[in-house]
Amino acid sequence: MGDRPARWTEATVYPDMWADPDRDPRNSEGVSPDGELPTLKQYLTDYRLTILMKCEGLTPDQLARRSVPPSTMSLLGLIRHLAEVERDWRNWLSTDAPLPTLYGRRDADFDGAAADEAVVDEARTDLAREQELTDAALALHSDLGQRVGRDGIAIRELMVHRVHRVEEYARHCGNADLLRECIDGRVGQ
């Protein structure tokens, strides 16, 4: 077991935190958001930041490392997968023909997560672009009860559960915790 990384964190205040509270971009002083939609948006923002934080400071080799063989899951694969998922959420909003996938066939988001700086840069660019486009599309629907798309899904359901916007990021933040700890031992919230 000599290959097992020692557990560590950058936080000095609490040993189970990723970063000290005063340096954590997810921490905000003051009151929590008012209303259901602002609360959902804040949770989503925090989960998005968590995924990016879990990938900070890693090389392309580390980002592409598949920590639990034979699984194809890696941190880079998660970034690519979330870009793909953001795009697919826009399909749920629309009655138009579905947008094409970013990476091709099923599971190509994970399978194509190669240890290459160009692949890493492309994945980060894809994720930022797809998040921005999905946010803009959802901004047109401030009524959480509004039903949209071919299936008449409520915006609330799209944001929280059925197609998992907040739930998807939350689950993958947990995956990212385990993947990062396997790479270099870094732990935390």
TrEMBL record:
Domain of life, source organism: Bacteria
Database matches in SUPFAM superfamilies: DinB/YfiT-like putative metalloenzymes
Signal peptide start and end residues: none
UniProt xrefs under InterPro entries: DinB/YfiT-like, MST-like
Gene3D superfamilies in alphabetical order: dinb family like domain
Region (Disordered): 13-37
Name of this chain's protein: DUF664 domain-containing protein
Organism: Arthrobacter cheniae
Taxonomic path: Bacteria, Bacillati, Actinomycetota, Actinomycetes, Micrococcales
